[in-house]
């Protein structure tokens, strides 16, 4: 595969997929990330706020070095 990893695009898809899930349901996603960089098209902090508003919990497994934004997402959600 070629191209840049976009964590934001993936998380936006998660929000869309959980849009019809009832409030009482548990909404969780596991991100397995192996890239050393991240190429997001917009403000990923806005996406994190959306995840929190939608009560979506994000857990992360990083197969490479520790990346600030991955830690931030896991802590915030």
Sum up the overall morphology in one term: globular
Radius of gyration: 12 Å
Number of domains: 1
Task: Please outline the major beta sheet.
Answer: 2 strands, parallel
Strand content: 15-25%
Quickly give the structural class: alpha+beta
Number of separate strands:
2
Spatial strand order of the main sheet: 1-2
The topology string of helices and strands comes to: HEHEH
The chain-level mean pLDDT equals 90
Helix count from the secondary structure assignment: 3
Helix content: 25-40%
Query: Which residue ranges are poorly predicted, with pLDDT under 50 across at least 5 consecutive positions?
Result: none
Distance between the termini: 29 Å
Topology summary:
Blueprint: H1 7-17, E1 27-33, H2 44-53, E2 56-62, H3 68-76
Parallel strand pairs: 1-2
Helix pairs in contact: 1-2
Question: What does it look like?
Answer:
The termini are far apart. This protein has one domain. Strands 1-2 form a two-stranded parallel sheet. The protein is of the alpha+beta class and 77 residues long. The radius of gyration is 12 Å and the shape is globular. The protein contains 3 helices and 2 strands; from the N terminus they run αβαβα. The protein has helices at 7-17, 44-53, 68-76; strands at residues 27-33, 56-62.
